Every structure is written in structure tokens, then in C-alpha cells.
Amino acid sequence: MLEIFTSPLFYLFITIGIYTLFAFLKSKFKSPLLNPLLWTIVFMIGYILLIVFISKGNIEQNNITNEVSKYQAATSIFDVLLAPVTVALAVPLYLNRNVLKENWLPILIATFVGTLTSVGSVIGLSFLLGLDKDIMFALFPRGVTTAIAKEIGALLGVSEHVSITVTVVVLTGVVGAVIGPLLIKLFGKRDDIAIGLALGSASHAIGTSKSFDYSEKAGAIATVSIITNGLLTVVVALITMLIIR
Questions:
Q1: Which of 41, 71, 177, 213 is the 20 to 30 Å CA partner of 23?
Q2: Considering only CA atoms, which of 208, 210, 215 is closest in space to residue 86?
Q3: Distance from C-alpha of 236 to C-alpha of 122, rounded to nearest angstrom
Q4: DSSP string spanning 102-125?
């Protein structure tokens, strides 16, 4: 009986179902705390732990790892769709090209500062906590979207730590998408360009999707931030790697 609730089709169904539910609740109550990605992650972690406990009688690391591997295989279609979805952000980018031409300097400055802050915080915390250099390099791309982060990890020679890279990228995006709107509301900032730069630079694709809730203009600016931030992160990370190693 338990096999039904751990089948690939059921894992796919429950993941999409939870996300759809919270997407509906978020649109109804207009609260960033109801971020569908955040609650999908929380519920699926709890669900997998429950399944492991029921089937094995404990939640040992090996049992969890095996069940997570089954879940990843069942939902691998999301990985396939990740790159095309990221590329699709070029549509609003093209539609708002005039806005981008007029504001290229603040966009460049903001994303440059955002990149230095992201990489600089990783370096500082890594030395403070005594992290291994490979782990530090795996954390470098935390400020860019997952598709780009994986490529940066490969470029830096830390592909074996891709799970760490993906985890920190998702956490960065979710936290930024949840806290960002609260800060925008707190400071009363309603400028579309500032909103797009903040959410795009701080929380990449997840923040960009949130910026479209404000306006298409903010979403387009956030999309540019993702691209610029990705390119700058590659350059800064490579320079830092050459210096440190």
C-alpha cells in the first residue's frame, strides 16, 4: 500500500498539488509569507521524513538519502524545464528594451554591488567559520539562478558539491522573495526599477517572478539583473579563485 504514496507519479502529483494550493492562497491573501516554493519545500521535507519513518521505523541518514533519490528521479522533469523557463524571461526583457537602454548605468552599478556583496559575504563567512575552500567555491553562485549556478560550479571545479550549490541558491531565492516584499512595504519603495534591481539581484529567478507581481517593467529589470549578475559572478569568482588557490 505504501508503494502508491512513494511512486514517481504520486511524488509528482503531490509536489504540483502543494505548489498550486499555495499559489492560490498567495494570490488570494497577497502575502509573501505564503510563497508556494517555500511551503512546497517544507511540506515535501516533512512528507519524505514521514514516509521514511513509517517504512523503516527510523529516520537514519541512509534511508532519507535513498528516498530523496527516488523523489529527485520522479521530479527530474523540473530540472529539464529549468533552463527553458529561464530563457523565456527574455520576452519581457525585449518588450521593455527602451526602459533598459535609459537605465543601463544604475542597472550595471546595482548588479555590480550586489555581486560583490554576495561573493564577499560568502568569502567572509567561509573564513570566519573555517569552511573548506571547495565548499566556499560551491557557495559562490548563491546569488544567481540555478541553471547558471550549476555551470559556475562546474567552471570552478566543484561539481561534486552541486547539491550544496543548488540548496543555497534555492534558499537565497526563497528568503529574498519572502523578505524582499516586506522590506519594500516597510520602506514604502514603489519605484519599479528599484524593486526589479533589488529582487533580481538578491533572489535571482524566484525574486524575478515576484517582481512581476509589481509590474512587467520591474520584472524586466529583474531579468536583466539575473543576466548581469550571472556574468559578473563568473568573473569575480574566477578572479577570487585564482587569488585564493
A1: 71
A2: 208
A3: 12
A4: HTHHHHHHHHHHHHHHHHHHHHHH
